[in-house]
TrEMBL record:
Identification of the protein by name: Tryptophan synthase alpha chain
A Pfam family this chain is assigned to: Trp_syntA
InterPro entries: Aldolase_TIM, RibuloseP-bd_barrel, Trp_synthase_suA
Entries under SUPFAM superfamilies matching the protein: Ribulose-phoshate binding barrel
Principal EC category: lyase
Length: 271
């Protein structure tokens, strides 16, 4: 049983929803990213999505785009992100980690080497934003041989036949994009999300996580009622953007700075 599957089963027994924060590795620096990961676990994160930087993050809004630029300015690479995961695993063997990003860095490394190195580092899942499921066969085979979960996105505009196929190919969980647009957008229609997620639940056996547009505890609680998990990206990355470049922040410093995350966890538990 994978860490991701184990996590969701445990939360279900506890009648709780998964809290999944996203951060861009290397922003503002690798050492702070490592301490952020541990601080997020202390704040109640059940799973962490760790973004590896790429120069053309097409599905991301300006907040995450700027984070990617800051990370690339520090020369953060996919290889460096895998080394970061390995360091995290020296202390934490339980919290699932999902690498989220784009196909180009994986293509450059090579599918086989990427999958082997990711498994060895302690990665649990991979979400390649710009990999259409129709073209994912080769990558899927290699990733599954390394016992990694492959997570796909379902958008509000995804028609039912394609959504069913995505659910068949996915493992770990399915990421439902709550709005039409990029990360950090604010035009969230909760009634529409409810309708679409309920339809998705009718034919998807995997846990469903909702992401995009979750900015505060109130929204986290409302969306937490609709699915198995919520994913928080831009709201956290905005806080990280306030950190000073050149300073390596301790976990204690970061726990105060990311108090919003603990508030979202608490709100989610009340939902």
């Amino acid at each position: 049983m994978s860490r991701i599957e184990k996590c969701f089963k445990q939360l279900k027994r506890q009648n709780k929803k998964a809290f999944i924060p996203y951060l861009t590795a290397g922003d503002p620096n690798i050492e702070t990213s490592l301490n952020l990961m541990h601080a997020l676990v202390q704040a109640g994160a059940d799973i962490i999505e760790l973004g590896y930087p790429f120069s053309d993050p097409s599905s991301d809004g300006p907040v995450i785009q700027r984070a990617v630029e800051r990370s690339l300015a520090k020369h953060t690479s996919l290889k460096g992100v895998l080394a970061l995961v390995k360091r995290f695993r020296e202390e934490n063997q339980d919290t699932p980690l999902v690498l989220m990003g784009y196909l180009n860095p994986i293509e450059c490394m090579g599918y086989q080497k990427f999958a082997e190195d990711a498994e060895a580092a302690g990665v649990d899942g991979v979400l390649v934003v710009d990999m259409p499921p129709e073209e994912a066969h080769d990558l899927l085979q290699i990733i599954h041989r390394s016992e990694l979960d492959c997570i796909f996105l379902v958008a509000p505009t995804t028609h039912e036949a394609r959504a069913r196929k995505i659910c068949e190919l996915s493992s770990g969980y399915v990421y439902y994009v709550s709005l039409k647009g990029v990360t950090g957008a604010s035009h969230l229609d909760i009634d529409s999300v409810r309708t679409n997620v309920n339809q998705l639940k009718s034919y998807c056996e995997l846990p469903i996580a909702i992401g995009f547009g979750i900015k505060d505890a109130e929204t986290a609680a409302k969306l937490g009622e609709l699915a198995d998990a919520i994913i928080v990206g831009s709201a956290l990355v905005s806080l990280i953007a306030e950190l000073k470049d050149g300073h390596e922040y301790s976990r204690d410093e970061l726990s105060k700075h990311i108090a919003l995350m603990a508030g979202m966890r608490a709100a989610l538990d009340r939902s």
